[in-house]
Amino acid sequence: MNMPIAVDFFLHYVYLILFLWVLGEQLGLPIPSVPLLLTAGTLTATHKVNLAMAILVILVACAISDSVWYFLGKRFGGSVVKLLCRLSMESSTCVRRTNNYFTRHGSKALLVAKFVPGLSTVAAPIAGQTGMPYLVFLASDLAGAVLWSLSIILAGRFFGDALKENPHALSTAGHFAGLLFVLLLAGFFLYRILKQQAFLKSVRGAKIEPEELREMLDAGQKVFIIDLRHPLDYLPDPRVLPGAVRIGPETVAEHQEMIPRDRDVVLYCTCPSEATSGKVALNLRKQGVYRVRPLRGGFDEWKRLGCPLETLKEDASVSAA
Asked: Do 174 and 46 touch, CB atoms closer than 8 A?
């Protein structure tokens, strides 16, 4: 298929493509919409794509997909959030960052969620999990979708208007719009993949297996265990690993004086790939705590293997996440 035919096809079905693409992304597929919205925005300068219609179909797609995840989150809670984070290319940040946004800002977090990688993925099910009223959720979610889609499309429109100063350049841009979209999409994927791989490589060698930790505890070895989970993660199961101290990831640095240097320090969370534990481990190593290791599989794997758990003691909670 040559490029002009591809562009004609895109322009003929642009609203359907926008709807399906945004719907797929918001349902959890790793297909970023930003390159497509930028391309559509550029083409609005040619008046072959209607700005208002483009925004409308995007809002409909967001309303459908986000409502689905809202009700799934309300029904199944944290398990839905974890599933979405595994699908997300930003699984290293999405759970922790979104939980914190909702804790601090409530429904206002939905106004900015779609701008932040990872937040958009799990904002809707966490809203359902926290019991936010549906109409409040929908109004805030759509307001955020308007801000997100309009800002990206207008950025593309600004580029298209700049090209209007040179009619030949605008014609050329329209001719190669398909190629521009492919290049933007490829670059987006490449950046995300390289970023994710670099992070995973940095923490892979430091992990401790649940069986190894259990053997150490059974043998009476002194191990300092830190529970990094967010308060929402305690709703389905409020227990912790034996002797664990609960410290929020954002406040670990403030309590580093209580973290021993003469024994192993084990961190655990509920994030995919032990993301939060890995980041905290890296930060602690920079501060001189070298015997620090994330627990592979975190709390969920420890529980799945039938390892011992205990009720969190009141004085074991140093700081809420």
From this structure: yes
- Check whether residue 170 and residue 54 sit in a common domain: yes
The pLDDT of 67-80, averaged and rounded, is 87
Q: Record the pTM.
A: 0.57
Question: Are residues 53 and 119 both part of a single domain?
Answer: yes
Nearest CA among 203, 216, 177, 245 for reference residue 40: 177
Adjacency order of strands within the sheet including 223-227: 245-246, 223-227, 264-268, 292-294
End-to-end Cα, the chain, rounded Å: 53
Residues 121 and 54 in one domain: yes
How many CA atoms does the CB half-sphere of 225 hold within 13 Å?
26
CA of 236: how far to CAs of 141, 239, 305, in Å?
A: 26, 9, 17
Q: pLDDT, tens digit, for every residue of 117-129?
A: 667 778 888 888 8
**Closest listed residue to residue 142, CA positions, set 119, 110, 118, 97:** 110
Number of structural domains the chain divides into = 2
Same domain, 288 and 198: no
Please give the residue range of the domain that contains residue 277: 205-316
- DSSP collapsed to 3 states, the chain: CCHHHHHHHHHHCHHHHHHHHHHHHHCCCCCCCHHHHHHHHHHHCCCCCCHHHHHHHHHHHHHHHHHHHHHHHHHHCHHHHHHHHHHCCCCCCHHHHHHHHHHHHHHHHHHHHHHCCCHHHHHHHHHHHCCCCHHHHHHHHHHHHHHHHHHHHHHHHHHHHHHCCCHHHHHHHHHCHHHHHHHHHHHHHHHHHHHHHHHHHHHHCCCECHHHHHHHHHCCCCEEEEECCCHHHHCCCCEECCCCEECCHHHCHHHHHHCCCCCEEEEECCCHHHHHHHHHHHHHHHCCCCCEEEECCHHHHHHHCCCCCEECCHHHECCCC
The pLDDT tens digits for 218-246 are: 999 999 999 998 887 887 888 999 999 99
